[in-house]
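Quiz preparation item.
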């Protein structure tokens, strides 16, 4: 082997040089280059030196060199498998997408804004990666309203690139919000600025309207209420990930999108680490890294350094929230150094000194929020909140009526004292405490909401009822109790509560709730009229559009049903019920066209409908847990596909096996749809098994509760 490094050897060097979070001094990089070249020469000479033992000879750069060798072996395999990748560019077609604009690029990927002609030119984000679908696995396993979902994952056989497709919810991020706020006094600003930024920072093709109504805290609250609302939802997303053993590791403002309705949406899982998988690349963005992350990057990191885990994400979360609340970074970066190593050392020094409390930066920031930020930014992970869920609970607690009153009294102790003295002087001292105590019906309603979230629905109903006895004309409490009744399957009682709430305060929420109850009670025509009323006020409501389509299907209004389902899926590409319903609609239309037609006489439209049904039922199964109804309907669809191609016999038997496992009735096996496989041994065995077990009650899984959860 000569002294020239081949392309396979050079690319990993560029990879390490291209990681800003791992920038080193020139001497260290030179040492890595020399060590790497020497290792490659030994490989070229036919040797097979142990990588770990070789790296141990260079203690100052051991970790970086080991990572470089891992990438070398990976790239060697990739280069042996395929030629140099030619990346697609904007204005080109790739798979089923038209690439509109390049949004970003990295060493192993490109990100494009694209349209999807097959779905009405739906606007999507297409991320192309040469490292496979690890990010897609993380996102696909973790559907959450505040985590960017994955619509689909496809490998292009021509380039070997993996394309995963995500919804495009807009251009605004928390970076844009921080820029817009500038030096505005956060304690004086209104939360509405969050919605203004989300609506103002746009590309020409951005979504034109918010799919969901904004939170009341964003519409009417103070800016710090908006910060709490954003923080609570972001903490929810982290709690969801952490509960599944996944750490994000690169939380920063640019990785949090703002939807048009002001919803924070977490994205960019390139550095995420799954506790159930081998460790991935260590990385992140320096100013938002926890101390343990920064120290782990140093060559002299102590062996007993605390692990980088969920608490590291909590630290990064604290930095973001501190910036939003105060307008400054908690750890002064005005003396920014020229190298990453120097900036890393500077940040560690400032973190050790501790951040100035938020209420010291701005005395009008409430002590409770300031304390929470102090805890999140603790140097010792053990002193931080131990779960993101506990953070979300504390932030939401500040937004309840009780929390608002507590915060007001904390901000205005002199007024509270003066009022108490006045009561005492007037001989009303006995009432002084009661005057500032949260009303009983508010306390009972808050307890009911807490019990509801814990799944203790009968107890929640008892508290809601006590609250309503004290204050009957409270629509929010009536809706909350109606939700609890729905959870218990008490549809009549739920309907009464939604109707009572609608009389007091008519609106799209109450109309949609009434429609949903009527649907569950089998009153489809009546339900449809209520959904239509709700849509007059709130057009882009995926759940209501799905349920409206269900009603149209029952009324044999096929074209109207498909229009509503296409729109619902455009608004929410992870709605299982909408894909399920559209699959059933295609099944129904295909059966109608195929009636009295032999298999060899099937026309193109019938085959297209079958293909559409197969694609949608597959997507429905990918979007969530498979129910008995979903498995049964999948079996009916694949059974129809047998008329086109016998290869669908095996999938039909698999779907029937799933349905039996989930408790389907034995009656399904008598359906003429399965006549083609009635003599199959597996079919007979499954039929016998279904007859010997107790069937579970069927439920309307194609319906979605449109009323906002408590």
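Solution:
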């Amino acid at each position: 082997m000569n002294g020239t490094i081949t392309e396979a050897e050079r690319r990993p060097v560029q990879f390490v040089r291209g990681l800003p979070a791992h920038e080193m001094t020139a001497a260290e990089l030179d040492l890595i280059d020399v060590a790497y070249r020497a290792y490659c020469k030994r490989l070229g000479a036919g040797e097979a030196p142990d990588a770990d033992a070789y790296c141990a000879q260079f203690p100052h750069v051991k970790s970086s060199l080991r990572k470089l060798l891992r990438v070398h072996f990976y790239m060697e395999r990739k280069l042996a498998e395929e030629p140099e990748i030619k990346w697609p560019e904007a204005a080109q077609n790739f798979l089923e997408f038209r690439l509109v604009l390049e949004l970003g690029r990295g060493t192993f990927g490109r990100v494009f804004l694209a349209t999807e002609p097959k779905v009405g030119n739906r606007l999507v984000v297409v991320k192309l990666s040469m490292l496979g679908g690890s990010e897609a696995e993380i996102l696909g396993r973790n559907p959450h309203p505040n985590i960017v979902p994955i619509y689909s994952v496809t490998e292009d056989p021509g380039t070997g690139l993996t394309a995963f497709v995500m919804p495009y919810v807009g251009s605004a991020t928390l970076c844009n919000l921080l820029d817009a706020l500038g030096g505005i006094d956060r304690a004086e600003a209104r939360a509405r600025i969050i919605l203004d930024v989300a609506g103002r920072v746009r590309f020409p093709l951005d979504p034109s309207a918010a799919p969901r109504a904004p939170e009341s805290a964003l519409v009417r609250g103070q800016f710090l209420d908006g910060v709490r609302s954003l923080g609570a939802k972001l903490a929810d997303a982290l709690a969801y990930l952490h509960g599944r053993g996944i750490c994000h590791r690169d939380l920063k403002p640019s990785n949090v999108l703002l939807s048009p309705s002001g919803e924070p949406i977490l994205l960019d899982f390139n550095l995420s680490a799954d506790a159930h998988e081998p460790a991935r690349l260590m990385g992140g963005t320096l100013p938002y890294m926890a101390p343990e992350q920064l120290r782990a990057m140093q060559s002299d990191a102590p062996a007993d350094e605390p692990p980088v885990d969920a608490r590291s994400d909590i630290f990064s979360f604290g930095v973001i929230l501190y910036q939003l609340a105060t307008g400054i970074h908690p750890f002064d970066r005005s003396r920014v150094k020229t190298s990453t190593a120097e900036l890393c050392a500077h940040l560690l020094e400032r973190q050790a000194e501790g951040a100035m409390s938020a209420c010291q930066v701005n005395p009008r920031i409430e002590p409770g929020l300031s304390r929470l930020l102090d805890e999140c930014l603790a140097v010792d992970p053990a002193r931080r909140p131990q779960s993101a869920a506990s953070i979300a609970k504390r932030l939401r607690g500040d937004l309840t009526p009780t929390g608002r009153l507590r915060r007001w009294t904390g901000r205005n102790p002199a007024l509270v004292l003066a009022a108490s003295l006045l009561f005492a002087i007037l001989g009303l001292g006995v009432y002084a405490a009661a005057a500032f105590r949260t009303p009983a019906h508010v306390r009972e309603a808050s307890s009911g909401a807490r019990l509801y979230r814990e799944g203790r629905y009968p107890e929640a109903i008892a508290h809601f009822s006590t609250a309503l006895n004290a204050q009957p004309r409270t629509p929010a409490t009536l809706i909350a109790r109606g939700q609890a009744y729905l959870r218990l399957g008490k549809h009549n009682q739920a309907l009464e509560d939604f109707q009572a709430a609608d009389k007091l305060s008519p609106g799209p929420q109450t109309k949609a709730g009434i429609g949903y109850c009527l649907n569950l009670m089998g009153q489809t025509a009546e339900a449809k009229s209520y959904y239509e009323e709700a849509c007059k006020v709130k057009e882009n409501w995926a759940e209501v559009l799905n349920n409206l389509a269900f009603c149209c299907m029952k009324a044999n209004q096929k074209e109207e049903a498909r229009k509503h389902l296409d729109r619902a899926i455009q608004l929410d590409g992870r709605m299982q019920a909408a894909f399920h319903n559209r699959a059933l609609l295609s099944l129904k239309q295909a059966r109608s066209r195929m009636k009295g037609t032999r298999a060899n006489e099937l026309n193109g439209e019938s085959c297209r409908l079958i293909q559409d049904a197969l694609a949608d039922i597959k997507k429905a199964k990918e979007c969530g847990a498979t129910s008995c109804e979903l498995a049964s309907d999948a079996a009916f669809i694949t059974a129809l596909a047998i008329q086109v191609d016998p290869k669908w016999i095996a999938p039909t038997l698999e779907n029937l096996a799933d349905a039996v496992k989930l408790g389907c009735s034995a009656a399904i096996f008598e359906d003429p749809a399965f006549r083609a496989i009635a003599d199959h041994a597996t079919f007979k065995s499954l039929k016998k098994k279904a007859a010997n077990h107790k069937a579970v009650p069927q439920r309307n899984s194609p319906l979605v509760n449109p009323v906002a959860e408590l």
